[in-house]
Specification:
With 188 residues, the chain is α+β, with helices and mostly antiparallel strands. Helix content is 28%, strand content 31%. The chain is built from 4 helices and 9 strands, in the order αββαβββαββββα. The strands form 2 sheets. A 7-stranded antiparallel sheet has the order 3-4-5-9-8-7-6, with helices on both faces. A two-stranded antiparallel sheet has the order 1-2. A hairpin with a 2-residue loop joins strand 1 and strand 2. Helix 1 crosses helix 3. It is globular.
Length: 188
Amino acid sequence: MTRLSRHSRRPLAAAAACAVLLAVSACGDDSSPGTDPNIAYQTGVVQGDVDTSRFEGLLTECEILPPAQIAETVGGQSAQGSFVGALCRWVVTGGDTVDVTLNWWEWGNINLEKQTAQNLGFTTENIQVHSMAAFTSRDPARPEMCGVTAKSPGRGVLTWWVEPHGAAGGDPCEAPRKLMELVLDRAS
């Protein structure tokens, strides 16, 4: 069995936390089961044969900001992106290495996301980002990490997570707040 370093466990922990948030958020979906014409249902069970050619914007949420702008916002020089499940991820280098994660829950509810974060042991604080209701999420065990969740300009909720590999200086919620501002600026 291979032992993971502290830095290699962080992305796994962040992905696990986001997976839990996704699972809980899905439970709060207001849509009726079995009504999506793109999914074949049988007695309420998704069969998995989704025609992805009908989703023209698949993965475009990962292009919400250019990688260079993400890197600059978190204090790096370049950002290497990837898509993992429902998460857009970047590893920013050129200074301190920083993990950046974006999730957009199209049918998400900001109150449910906040409740889920609190149930996971995160501390939350209500904020506003360009007049939009938002909140920060902080893990007391990892004080250098912060997430900012806000209502999406279209529908659902967006969350930016930023976690430096080293000790962060200053306010750890500054970078995810700036990323959210950039997204909301583009939407207006």
